[in-house]
Amino acid sequence: MQRPIISLLIGLVLATGALFIVYNLRGAGQVAKAAPAIFPTTTVLIASTDLAFGDPIKADFIKAAEWPQDSVPKNAALDRDDLLLGPDGERIAIRSFVTGEPILKSKISGYGERPILSRKIADDMRAFSVRVNDVNGVAGFLLPGDNVDVQLTRQLGKDHKNLITDIIIQNVSVLAIDQLSSEETDNPVVAKTATVEVTPEQAQKLALAQQLGTLSLTLRNFANLEDAEVKRVSVKDLGIDGPKKVVKNDGIYVRVRKGTSTVKSERVPQ
Q1: Fold of the domain built from segment(s) 41-115
Q2: 0.70 exceeded by the pTM?
Q3: Residue 42 pLDDT > 80, yes or no?
Q4: Which residues fall within 8 angstroms of residue 268, CB to CB, at 6 or more apart?
Q5: Which terminus, N or C, of the chain has the lesser number of Cβ atoms within 10 Å?
């Protein structure tokens, strides 16, 4: 009688132990599954405030942050002392930064350098200034950072009916308006020149076009930077006729002849 009871108790103990082991293994698996993956990081320097073109790179304007190692941008600044300490003065921003953006060496100057416009020009590009006024300069609403098309209006012959307009360059970026090159400004001005960023070949076209006629700029939508299909526009496309000759009718004239010679023309009532 005692042996069956002992066997039953041993079975209960073994079953309880097995359930305990299974429960613990299951819980450990859930914890391991819920644990987040750990990615290696690198300390990079980021902007702690918005920086505009020409702003100095000061200690108060940057801070260190952990960045996923696989996503660290090329030329990111990693060394605080190398970024700030220089023998010839401070570095400056030659491109704008937003808060939290990594400081890239390609967007900052060397030590003690000036915020000159040439630092904003991309590699293999050129800056070209176009004469504008309050009409062909989009009524003063152009700002650095805008994109424009350049069109040329010229006369093919002596007659004004031969006036034509061609869009010669599409989607070029405005680097500066007069002496203003900051993209942070929000105050449009009526300017005399607009400096645009173009390729060397486009700069040649603009130089030639300025000698042929009048250049004007058309402002593009900031989100639509694709080249459009365009055609030449002439006076005929306006759907209007040129000025008509006005014939003044002031009566009827009769020539009076005597013999073989004309004496004079006399006006007679209609």
Answers
A1: Type Iii Antifreeze Protein Isoform Hplc 12 (3.90.1210)
A2: no
A3: yes
A4: 251, 252, 253, 254
A5: N
